[in-house]
Amino acid sequence: MTTTADLVTPRLDSFASPVLSKVVRRLVSANADVHDVLPGAVQELVKIRASQLNGCGFCLDMHTKDAAVAGETSVRLNLVAAWREATVFTDAERAALELAEFGTRLSENVGVPSDVWQRAAEHYTEEELAALVGLIATINAFNRVNVMLSQPAGSYEPGQFG
To answer: Which stretches make up the Carboxymuconolactone decarboxylase-like domain (predicted)?
Structure first.
């Protein structure tokens, strides 16, 4: 059974571990490869949605704060989980959020259906789609690292990691 103490003390320090620090640096590098390809708002929305689905409080703390500093509104941030019913997202953002959901829930959905991919392809170039795939893959990896480590949420400061 998980206790409150378990939830506020990480199991490992990912920066002190020689192995895990290398893995995290490579994930950061992979994430940087998509940085200039997609609009910042789309990147943060995708990271937030995947983190919600994976239950990663640390990543939610980070990406909601970073998005707010970048000018994202609290209304949009609060509606990411209900994006299908919300009128505050563009069609392109909705397509990215849908792809993020299917790319995160691979085992539940048996992959990404062609119609989901096609909706994304209507709004993004091939290179932007490649960036979305890379972004979804890396945020899911970050989520898994942080959830397995029980990385606590709430103390992230925007820009803390560069």
So the answer is: 32-101
CB atoms within 10 A of CB 55: 11
Residue 80 DSSP symbol:
G
CA angle 127, 161, 2 (to 5 degrees): 100
**Residue located via tokens 């000018």:** 71
Q: Phi/psi of residue 154, each to 5°?
A: 120, -20
Q: What is the pLDDT of residues 119-152, one digit of tens each?
A: 999 999 999 999 999 999 999 999 999 999 999 9
Other C-beta atoms closer than 10 Å to the C-beta of 92 total 17
pTM for the structure as a whole: 0.92
Separation in Å, CA 137 to CA 47, 100, 142, 143? 10, 9, 9, 10
* Residue 19 phi, psi (nearest 5): -75, -55
User: At what angle are helices 114-121 and 91-104 packed, to 10 degrees?
Assistant: 150
